[in-house]
Amino acid sequence: MGTEVNSRRGRRRRAWDDRAPTVRQIYALAAALCAFTEQEFPRTRADASDLIERVRVDIGHPEPALATRDRDETPLQRRLRHRRDRRAARDPE
Question: Both 8 and 29 in a single domain?
């Protein structure tokens, strides 16, 4: 019985490790990269877009400007919609 619990924990741990980084981790990474490159951390979305574009130009990115997206296409919106669909499928009325 103890082996089953440990193997389940191992699977859960691997699944947790494979998930996308958290928003907090992304901000920490961005702040660390700004500090490393001696850039000021952007205070607004416009400042962030400008900094991203400058960095992308510097590294030779083929499309330095960020593509604009409709609000419905953001990952958060897709994820929330997916959860609603799963809940509806699980709890049919």
Answer: yes
Kindly state the average pLDDT of the residues 59-71. 78
> In terms of residue numbers, what domain contains 25?
1-41
- Total domains present in the chain: 2
CA distances 92 to 1, 64, 88, Å, are 35, 46, 6
Whether the per-residue pLDDT at 71 is higher than 60: the answer is no
Whether 66 and 87 map to the same domain: the answer is yes
Q: What is the mean pLDDT of residues 2-29?
A: 77
Residue 35 has pLDDT above 70, yes or no: yes
